[in-house]
Amino acid sequence: LLIGKEQKSDDYKQSETYLTRAVEGLVIAGHHEFIALGLLARAALYRLKKEFPKAHADLDEAYEIAERSEMRLYLTDYHLESCRLCIAEGKSGQAAQHLESAKKLIAETGYHRRDKEAEELGRCLNQNSQN
Known about the structure:
- By secondary structure, the chain is an all-alpha fold.
- It has one domain (2-130): Tetratricopeptide repeat domain (Serine Threonine Protein Phosphatase 5, Tetratricopeptide repeat), CATH 1.25.40.10.
- Helix content is 83%, strand content 0%.
- The chain is built from seven helices and no strands.
- Helix 2 (12-29) packs antiparallel against helix 3 (32-48).
- The chain starts with a helix and ends with a helix.
């Protein structure tokens, strides 16, 4: 996962290869807690590549795993990445809903290491609404 996430932005193909291999390996090993993390990372890559349907598919799968396993921190990460994806797609209303869900989970779980991301996404949404 780390190799896939750390590749330079102009080398998305290699990053995608590493992340896909990582997710496949985690699926084979049956490590559901890490599968969700891998899917979230790959969804972020697909968002950057503007491959939005693939990003949605990975986010949907990550959500199912996190929801079923009651992994509330991963649910927070799901909502933050979904917010980013919706912003990239120009879907401000859906992005705002995901951001509110993330903020609620942050408050409920004490997952304050995500406060800065939530604040930045809020600013981005405010800027988009003013344009």
